[in-house]
Amino acid sequence: MEGKYLDVKINNQQALNCLASVFINVAEYYGTDYQGIYKGVWGFDYDVQSSNLIFHSMKVPLYVDTREILTKEHGLETIVEYDRMAEEAIEIIRKDLKEGNPVCVCLNACNCKWTIAYRRLRFMHNCLIIGDDTEKEVFYISDPFFNTELAELPYNEFLEGYYYDHRFKKKGEPQDINYHWKEDIRAALINNKESFDKIKQFGGFVLDSYKELADLDWKLYKAYEFTYFFRVYYYSRYNYIEFLQYITENTEADFYQEMRLLQTSKEYWGYVWRIIQKIVNISSYKKTESYAKEVNQYLSKISKIESEVWEKLSDKVNN
C-alpha cells in the first residue's frame, strides 16, 4: 500500500476479543512479550436475573485491567479520551503516528469495511491505526481480530463511526511477568471460584430455555451477539493456555497437565459454539431441544474439567 505506516507486524494470534488483539499488536510493536495480556481471561459468568433474554444474561468476566498490564509489564502509558470530537481526533492521531506511536481506535463496526459488520451490524469495535495517507484521505488499519491483511479506513468512515481512542506512550522499563506469576494465577483462582458451578447451571438454563431460543426472531445482530459470547469463551481458554505455557517455558513451574485439561475444555467450548450457531438458524422446537441437550452435556463436562484445573493450580501456587 502507498502512504506512510509504522512497522507493525499484524499478529495472527486469535484473541478472545478485538481489544486483546490490538493490545497484542501494541506489545509486540514496542518489543515486549504479549502473553501476560491473557492472565485475566479465564472465567465465566451469567446473571439470569438481568434480562428475560438468554443472550443478555451472559457476561465476559475480565478481572484484570489490560491497560494496567500494559503499564506494568510493557512500560506503556495508555491514555483514553472519551469526549474528543472526531475531527480533532484525526489531527491528534496523525501527530502520534509521526512520533512513532500507533493508536487504538474504537469505531462503529458498521463503518469498518474490512469486517463482516460493514453496513450490516452496529457494535463497538477496536482496531489499531498504524499509518495514514493524507492524499487518499485514509488511515491504515491493523485488525487481526477480523483480518490478517492491512486495511484502509477512509477519513469519512472514521468521522462517521468514531467513538473514542487509546493512545500509547513509552513510560518506563517493562516488568518481567515471570516475577509475579503466582500472584497472577491466584487472582484467576479467586475470581473463578464460582465460575464452574455457573457453567453447569447455565447448561441447564439453556435447556430450560429451548422454546425461547426457537421462538426468538434471530435478527442478524441478535445471532451475532449470542454466538459471540461462545467465541469469547472458546478463545479465552486458548489464550489462558498460552499464558500458562509462557510461564512454564520461562520459570520453574510445570503446567503441562493443566494445559492438556484446558485444551480438552477448549475443544468442548468449540463444540458448544458450533451448536449455538446451528440453534440461531432454526425455529423447530424438536431440533432446538436436541441441540440444547447437547449444549447442556458439554457444559457439564466443561464444568468438571475446569474445576479440576482450578484444584490443580490451587495446589501448585498455594503450597
Description:
The protein has 2 domains: 4-31 and 76-170, Phytochelatin synthase, N-terminal domain (Cathepsin B, Chain A, Alpha-Beta Complex); 177-318, no CATH class. The protein is 50% helix and 14% strand. The protein contains 10 helices and 9 strands. The strands form 2 sheets. Strands 1, 4, 5, 6, 7, 8 and 9 form a 7-stranded antiparallel beta sheet that branches. The longest helix has 34 residues, at 285-318. The termini are far apart.
- Terminal-residue CA separation: 55 Å
Spans where pLDDT lies below 50 across 5 or more residues: none
Principal-axes geometry comes out as flat
Main sheet, how many strands, which sense, barrel?
Answer: 7 strands, antiparallel
How many helices does DSSP assign?
Answer: 10
Number of strands: 9
Q: What is the arithmetic mean of pLDDT?
A: 88
H/E series: EHEEHEHEEEEHEHHHHHH
**Alpha-beta classification:** alpha+beta
Tally of structural domains = 2
What's the Cα radius of gyration? 21 Å
Beta-strand proportion: 5-15%
Helix content percent band = 40-55%
Could you give a short description of this structure?
Helices cover 50% and strands 14% of the residues. It is α+β, with helices and mostly antiparallel strands.
